[in-house]
TrEMBL record:
One of its GO terms (molecular function) is serine-type endopeptidase activity. Keywords: Hydrolase, Membrane, Transmembrane, Transmembrane helix. Gene3D superfamilies: Rhomboid-like (1.20.1540.10). Residues 246-262 have a biased composition (Polar residues). GO terms for cellular component: membrane. The chain crosses the membrane at residues 297-315, 335-354, 375-401, 413-434, 441-459. Belongs to the peptidase S54 family. It is a multi-pass membrane protein. It comes from Lachnellula suecica. This is Rhomboid protein. GO terms for biological process: signal peptide processing.
Length: 557
């Protein structure tokens, strides 16, 4: 399982007015890009941000926020990256960048964020925020998606970083915007060349015309020069109006020749997107309410208990249909069951990219310890936000699940999968609530995955393990199923012990809950299987005695 919450709209940290005040002329490329690519953060300028850095002409009143020039305690070393040009090629937004040599201790984390925030969470948040400041993606939703309830934590950490680690956020954002504009312009030229409407070095080279400059060409150049002077005068007048109206520094409208009026507005101002985001934010308060542990755990515990009762009924009373009455008789039952689970997980993964579904997903498809929704104990089992997370989980679920399904049947398999998932979610919720860690969240099928793996290895505890039927080779030392299960639990236990010292966002307690549930289910299924076998033997013996003659019965005694 992984942490972090739903996506938010991309909001540029670059003030367009300050940019255009410094530049000599607005390039018409901005209008073309605004028409072809509906990305409201895109704008263009004749002067580059690398030139703007030396000009220092942006009025302080036009900057959305000020970067203080006071002494920073932790940004003096060379290996603390603070400039966009020094950003490493292997930079990952989720991992962030080091903001100091030594991670925060628990006392320092408490002094910054208050009680309830562990040192691991504090260091992970500060690393991610520092990386966004350097990369110029401080509020970029494609970088890191923060949950609504994490906004207060993010604001506190960002303020601490601005007070202690000096980073020129405006310049870094401008450099990144310049790189994005360069990439987009190259894409436009490549598309134009590909479809044949433009060719490199096409037309007559300048100065190679066999004709002298005509009267019409002279008039055209004079008109163009007069038009440019008029546009420059209008721009200067607009700058004066903007300086006298600082409250409207984010509004920008430009008129380009041969095109309609184009508005480059601040990202995130799409009314429909803002509406869906506000509805998603309303699902949880900014700060966790002052509830008791019982108030947070009891409703979810009732849902888990009801789910376990349903799993028991499914395991006990389910009878597989005849092959002639199945919806897809040509597909093996195990494949049909697992493909349905994969389809459900893929559907929820796609809904995370659909803004109208944000509110539903925040309520019932992600586990929030600070404000838990009871049915999220079930929904988060089928919820993934990252593709690699979905792919890895579903690959293991299908590989192990089909084998377990063939051995125990559909009813038992679904009972193990759902039971392991809800108990793993509840174990994770209990840990976060009891440790007062309310700034975390969890989702994913990892708990259910660990449950079916543990159940399969428990049922076949006396067998040796061979991956894909070929590894390890027969002449190599074999590994028993019980030994592999013990190794998995040992590695997970070590991860739980070391979690406080790491910045990983893996829900190890959910994995431990899944392993425990899978082992219990495997033992119960083995007991039931042995009881059934003993009952069948007794029945065969009774039938045999009934068919024996009186003389044979006396002899058998």
């Amino acid at each position: 399982m992984t942490s972090f919450g739903p996506s938010i709209s991309r909001i540029s940290c670059l003030g367009p007015r300050s940019l255009f005040q410094t530049c000599s002329k607005v390039d018409s490329l901005a209008a073309r890009l605004a028409q072809q690519y509906p990305r409201p953060f895109s704008n263009a300028s004749r002067c580059s941000w690398r030139e703007i850095r030396t000009l220092n002409r942006i009025p302080p009143a036009q900057i959305p926020y000020t970067v203080r020039g006071q002494f920073r305690a932790y940004a003096e070393a060379r290996d603390i990256i603070t400039e966009y040009e020094d950003l490493p090629e292997d930079y990952e937004p989720r991992s962030g960048l080091p903001f100091r040599h030594k991670p925060l201790s628990q006392d320092e984390a408490t002094s910054i964020f208050g009680k309830g925030v562990t040192a691991a969470v504090a260091n992970r948040v500060l690393r991610a925020l520092h990386g966004q400041r350097v990369a110029g993606t401080l509020q970029d939703p494609d970088s890191i998606r923060w949950a609504p309830f994490e906004k207060k934590l993010m604001d506190t950490g960002l303020q601490w970083l601005r007070d202690n680690v000096e980073v020129d956020e405006i310049t870094n954002a401008g450099l990144r915007a310049e790189d994005e504009m360069r990439d987009m312009e190259e894409n436009i030229l490549e598309d134009a060349e590909r479809i044949g409407i433009w060719k490199p070095n096409s037309g007559t080279p300048e100065g190679s015309s066999p004709y002298e400059k005509g009267v019409l060409e002279t008039i055209r150049e004079e008109n163009k020069k007069a038009f440019e002077e008029e546009e420059e005068q209008k721009k200067n007048q607009a700058d004066e109006i903007r300086e006298s109206s600082p409250n409207h520094s984010w509004e920008l409208q430009t008129q380009t020749p041969g095109s309609s009026q184009v508005e480059l507005r601040r990202p995130g101002e799409n009314p429909r997107l803002k509406y869906y985001l506000e509805r998603a934010y309303d699902t949880a308060p900014e700060a966790p309410p002052e509830w008791s542990n019982f108030r947070r755990l009891a409703p979810s515990g009732l849902v888990v208990l009801g789910t376990l009762v349903g799993c028991w009924a499914l395991s006990t009373f389910y009878e597989p249909p005849k092959n002639s009455k199945r919806m897809y008789p040509d597909i093996p039952p195990a494949a049909a069951t697992l493909l349905t689970i994969l389809a459900a997980n893929t559907l929820v993964f796609c809904l995370w990219r659909f803004p109208p579904a944000y509110r539903l997903l925040n309520q019932h498809f992600i586990m929030l310890p600070g404000y838990p929704y009871p049915f999220s104990m079930i929904g988060n089992i089928f919820s993934h936000k990252a593709f690699y997370h979905l792919f890895l989980n579903m690959a293991v679920v299908y590989f192990v699940g089909t084998r377990l399904h063939d051995e125990i049947g559909r009813g038992n398999f679904l009972a193990v999968y759902l039971g392991s998932g809800v108990l793993a979610s509840y174990a994770s919720l209990s840990y976060f609530v009891l440790t007062k860690n309310f700034v975390s969240s969890s989702l994913g099928a990892s708990g259910a995955l660990c449950g079916i793996v543990a159940c399969y290895l428990t049922i076949n505890s006396s067998e040796t393990v061979r991956f894909f039927g070929v590894f390890p080779p027969p002449d190599w030392p074999s590994v028993s199923s019980l030994g592999l299960l013990s190794l998995l639990i040992f590695v997970e236990s070590m991860s739980v012990w070391r979690k406080a010292k790491s910045t990983q966002s893996i829900d190890h307690w959910s994995h431990m809950g899944g392993y425990a549930t899978g082992i219990g289910a495997g033992v119960a299924l083995n007991v039931r299987y042995n009881q059934r076998k003993n009952g069948e033997r007794e029945l065969q013996r009774a039938e045999k005695r009934n068919n024996m003659s009186i003389e044979d019965r006396i002899k058998s005694k």
